[in-house]
Design a protein that fits this description.
Elements (H helix, E strand, L loop, with lengths): L1 E5 L6 H9 L17 E7 L2 H7 L6 E3 L1 E7 L14 H9 L3 E8 L14 H31 L4 H17 L13 H6 L11 E7 L9 H13 L2 E5 L1 H8 L3 H11 L5 H12 L2 E7 L3 E8 L4 H8 L1 H5 L1 E7 L1 H7 L2 H6 L4 E3 L10 E6 L1
Parallel strand pairs: 1-4, 1-5, 3-9, 5-6, 6-7
Antiparallel strand pairs: 2-4, 8-9, 10-11, 10-12
Length: 363
Amino acid sequence: MRAGIVGLPNVGKSTLFNALTSSKAAQSANYPFCTIEPNEGVVSVPDGRLERISRYIVPKKLVPAALRLVDIAGIVKGASEGEGLGNKFLSHIREVDAVLQVVRCFEDPDVVHVAGAVDPLSDIETVEIELMLADLQTLENALPKAERTAKGGDKDAKARVDAIKKCLEHLGKDQPLRTLTTLEAPEQAAIASFGLMTAKPILYVANVDENDLHGEGPLATKVRARAKEIGAGVVAVCAKLESEIAELDEADRLEMLQSSGLDEPALAVLAREAYRILGLQSYFTAGEKEVRAWTVPIGATAPQAAGVIHTDFEKGFIRAEVYTLDDLETYKSEKDIRAAGKLRVEGKSYVMQDGDICHFLFN
């Protein structure tokens, strides 16, 4: 799964990306469009359950779940019409699964704002409008071809025409497609290849000042209100501070967090929230070699979860042996969980639950 970091120029996208990925892959500078090509990196999703499992099943290593992040160049007003190399940048957003929009919530006369003034709601609106306009163009261009194909009796094309018309009507009301709830499953499948940007889940990242680390100031409060209004997520992050923390070793990092009044890096919260909005969850495998978190979509069945480890596991799936972390903490070992009759045997129809600890049996 890939999440794209978007926003206006000079809001802190590349600084945030570098801090999240503990790298300097993305160029960060005080001028628009210092990022041209998208940068990609992988970030771990912090999960305290890994360590809790390892207290009872001691492994050689812990392997957390991971997300792929894409740092995408700044979007400006008129991007849907090619401003600021907009069409090129917008195409990068079509390829990700979720959008993390960085919104500037700090004042700094030394960091220029592309619009001339710091206004987080205006920034959000600018990006949203450009993405909606781009989706409108995509759908309007696709409709004539879909209608021609549908006249020949093609059922998929008929579903595509119906879906396109519903989307165009919704966008015509200035509403992003993520709020459109009337699309049937065949209609969703028919337009999935379009990569419609406003249909993707969104998380607002309020890039705050070092004096407002919890995002309680007036600028971040506006972003929270907007997110609540449209049912989006929001996380407050001081990208500047987080980039400094990311460069420290473990001991110094803890000391800096404590002195800043933080329990953990805000980036840990961001990674977990991004994981959530993507509709993902984790299950675990545990043994002497490793305790590992595996990523599956919410609603995945046991064979699908097994297939994440190896495709042969899904093809030859026989059954899964499942227990919970609570079971492990109560009985202290897998042997005693089994003896207590708490080790469940699940078949092909079992829907995975977040935090399941599993063994898979397969042909």
